[in-house]
Amino acid sequence: MEHTQKSESSNVPRVLVGIDGSAGSERAFKVGLMVAKQRQWPLRLIGTFVRPVVTDDYYVRQLDQYRSEAANTVQTLLDEYSARATDAGVEVSTHTAEGDAGATLVDESQEARLAVVGKRGRNRFAGRFLGSVSGKLAAHAHCPTLVVPERWESDSETELLAPAQDRPGAEAEHEEPVSLMEESHARDHRRRSFANVTEALNFDSEIVVGVDVGDRAADVVHLAAEAAELVKAPLTLVSAAPLNAQGHWYPNTVEHNLELPNLRRRYTDHLEAMTQEVAAKSPGVSVRWQFFDGSPAGVLSEASRTAELVVIGTRGHGGFSGLLLGSVSQAVLNRAVCPVLVIPTHKPHRWHRH
């Protein structure tokens, strides 16, 4: 069963937003509406409900009534959000579907330029909207996916409430070392300072993109540059690799120290090349790069404490091996406290300028 209200052709790419009535989907709607309005793209609002499994004859007879009431409830919610989008001058369509929310959003993403979902939303029909749903959409979407978590709040002007992202996992017994090894140049914009954030990992007001050394790295970087241009924010390209002797490099201290510059050069040369590409293609974007000794998940999660946005690809090599669908991606999505834009590097995307 489906209830669909359309205001544009289904062949027109749009901003796709998952709605379930939770605080998470409210945040996703606001972000999706902002992007749709700025880019002049139509907005597509999706709501789902789950058909219960029943065996008793009495409940089987009541099933049609439940499905009708559930669909009407979801559609009423979508109509409320649709009215808000219309009032904002954005073209909008809605779709109510029976079934799995993640699968529905993945299917709808085939006709989207951007999918937006809130993190850890709940409601009586869709269940946990962002946990399993966010993971499924980020991993399988046909377009970039923007995951919007609950933003940290603090009354303090000098300290963040967001927890320090200095551990590789909840079960970790020791702090994960993170050190800035090299950077293109110092930041030239004003930032807030926080007592519980190190200067090297303070990305206040910036967009941060995780850069691997794979063939598709340029796709991720240039889409991050478009996002930076959209919100008029500086862009920082970040790579990280564990270069310590306890990591996966060289246990021999002498050999390790001799090889360290060459190991770093692979990343820094790539970062410099990507930075120059961005400067040439997006001259209005302030761009720089940093290379860290540490795990990619730890560095990007820590960056999310202050950054406006963190951008990652679904598949990587070298310093960002395993993005996405692996432990690194799960750690970043689970630990990040700022929006995370996930770019499907294994599929063609269509988020480009006109």
Distinctive features:
Rossmann fold; 14 strands; 12-stranded mixed beta sheet; elongated; 8 helices; two-stranded antiparallel sheet; 2 domains; alpha/beta; 354 residues; 20% strand
Low-confidence stretches: 1-9, 121-130, 166-174, 245-250
Rounded to the nearest angstrom, the distance between the terminal CA atoms is 36 Å
CATH homologous superfamily identity of the largest domain: HUPs
Shape: elongated
CATH architecture designation of the largest domain: 3-Layer(aba) Sandwich
User: Tally of extended strands?
Assistant: 14
Class of secondary structure makeup: alpha/beta
Secondary-structure element pattern, one letter each = EEHEHEHEEEHEEEHEHEHEHE
What is the percentage of strand-forming residues?
A: 15-25%
How much helicity do the residues have? 25-40%
* Count of helical stretches: 8
CATH class of the largest domain: Alpha Beta
Write a concise synopsis of the structure shown.
The protein is an alpha/beta fold and 354 residues long.
Overview of the structural elements:
There is one protein chain. The protein is of the alpha/beta class and 354 residues long. The chain folds into two domains: 2-148, HUPs (Rossmann fold); 179-343, Rossmann fold, CATH 3.40.50. Helix content is 36%, strand content 20%. The strands form two sheets. A twelve-stranded mixed β-sheet has the order 1-4-3-2-5-8-14-13-10-11-12-9, sandwiched between helices. A two-stranded antiparallel sheet has the order 6-7. Strand 13 (309-313), helix 8 and strand 14 form a beta-alpha-beta unit. The longest helix is centred in the N-terminal third of the chain and has 31 residues, at 57-87. The chain is elongated. The chain starts with a strand and ends in an 11-residue tail after the last strand. The model is unreliable at 1-9, 121-130, 166-174 and 245-250 (pLDDT under 50). Residues 154-188 are annotated as: Disordered. InterPro entries: Rossmann-like_a/b/a_fold, Universal_stress_UspA, UspA. Residues 168-186 have a biased composition (Basic and acidic residues).
